[in-house]
Amino acid sequence: MKNSNAVCNKEITVQNKWYHNLKYLLVGILFGIVFVKAEIISWFRIQEMFRLQSFHMYGVIGSAVLTGMVSVWLIKKFKIKTLDGEPITIASKKFNKGQIYGGLIFGFGWAITGACPGPLFAQIGTGAFAVIITLLSAIFGTWIYGYLRDKLPH
Q1: Which DSSP string do the residues of the chain spell out, in sequence order?
Q2: Measured between alpha carbons, how far is 66 from 75 in angstroms, rounded to an integer?
Q3: Which of 89, 93, 123, 133 can pair with 128 through a Cys bridge, CB separation 3.0 to 4.6 Å?
Q4: Using one digit for the tens of pLDDT, what is the confidence trace for 74-101?
């Protein structure tokens, strides 16, 4: 029994090595390349969307929502587990009016800056270094929210 526990502890230690996270870095880089090639990070594409001039971004967002819906359904139906064998649980969410306010603030920021948090790093990676101001603003806004969270409507 003692050897069995030692082996289990050794496996846990091996899984926590830093280089096991390189797969996430690789997926992130590939995801960023897809964002660039699909013009999802384009300020002009984002402005077209908010001006209702093009379906491009609505198609991307709609396909992402559909993919997410199907994925969640499949995870629940087939009780899919993580790569480590842990069950995936999706907590129920309760609607509150703070989500409306947050969504409006998020949308206004997205329309003004032409960047949402997902593609910020891809935009910076393409050389749009002015987006660093947007990234710092997003970090600051997140900090402000954390500071004021208890006083905000939830």
Answers
A1: -HHHHHHHHHHHHHHTSGGGGHHHHHHHHHHHHHHHHTTTT-HHHHHHHHTT--SHHHHHHHHHHHHHHHHHHHHHHHT-B-TTSPBP--------HHHHHHHHHHHHHHHHHS--TTTHHHHHHTT-TTHHHHHHHHHHHHHHHHHHGGGS--
A2: 14
A3: 123
A4: 999 999 998 889 999 988 989 988 889 8
Tokens of 137: 């603003």
Ramachandran sector of residue 63 (left: φ over 0; alpha: ψ -120 to 50; beta: rest): alpha
Q: Say if residues 131 and 115 touch (Cβ distance below 8 Å).
A: yes
Token pair listed for 138: 């997003």
Question: 96-135, pLDDT tens digit by residue?
Answer: 888 898 899 888 988 888 888 878 889 998 999 999 999 9
Q: CA 128, 137, 103 angle in degrees (round to 5)?
A: 105
Q: How much is the pTM?
A: 0.69
What 88-96 contacts at long range (C-beta under 8 Å, 24+ apart), as own/partner pairs, is 96/153, 96/154
